[in-house]
Amino acid sequence: xxxxxYTTGQLKNILSEENLNHERPFVLAELGRxxxxxxxxxxxxxDEELGxxxxxxxxxxLHLQRGTLRLIVANPPAxxxxxxxxxxxxxxxYPGISGKxxxxxxxxxxxxxxxxxxxTIDIHTTSAPTEGFVIANERNGKKIEFAEMAGINKIxxxxxxxxxxxxxxxxxxxxxxxxxxxxQYAYDLGMVAIKNVLGKLGVAxxxxxxxxxxxxYKLFGSIVRPSSPIEVLSxxxxxxxxxxxxxxxxxxxxxxIKAEEDFYPVFLGEKAYATIxxxxxxxxxxxxxxxxxx
Length: 294
Known about the structure:
Blueprint: H1 17-20, E1 26-33, E2 37-42, H2 50-61, E3 67-73, H3 76-81, H4 103-114, E4 119-126, E5 133-137, H5 141-148, E6 154-158, E7 173-180, H6 184-200, E8 215-224, E9 230-232, E10 247-251, E11 255-258, E12 264-266, E13 275-283, H7 285-288
Parallel strand pairs: 2-3, 2-4, 4-7, 5-6, 6-8
Antiparallel strand pairs: 1-3, 5-7, 8-13, 9-10, 10-11, 12-13
Helix pairs in contact: 2-6
């Protein structure tokens, strides 16, 4: 785990007093100038403060060769209260409503900060253990190729659906789930992923690793969490194949919830969702279509 200075109670060591009192999203730092413009948003959810530490450290150490890097704290009110949101989930409320209180107004302000970005990365962490992975729209080849630049092995392709997440409203946006809140693993992965992207775009000579053996997962459903208490079985893990008929969780220490089909679980045991997990199938790059062959 990280040092206490990485936690919400010590954000005063990272942010200025003025920033601590923001009711709107703000730019923590903006480096360079000109094109391309890359925006990194953090703290969309107020209980995911690790991203703020990541962009703070990046802002102090990066030296750009070209372009602009804009580092954004998206939801200061929730961040300073250490809660996921104040009135509604910010990442379910885009494009928002200008002038409205709470996350609806915040969403509109976030879009103002990223509207001119050529590329946008939305940083997240999780309440349940998982390998890091990148989220991209399954029918947007440009976004999928952008996702590959992060150097993270697993890429989750989400279906085109009703728009509500920030990355649905930008020129080329991806989400990166770094893993467990405030873990050293999540911090290190976030630093590496952003540096990889900047290196691949030629914005900074910071490329750390090359990951050409990506695994692609296509989201197709979910398992709803029952109203009774459940316990996810220790034999089940994110991105590890669960076979039809296999037990996933136990309800009230008695009945078992079993898989109705083969699938790979995503966000298994995530406390913020009303699901036990999302379901995905593994596909090849060739099955995606619309991507370069290089």
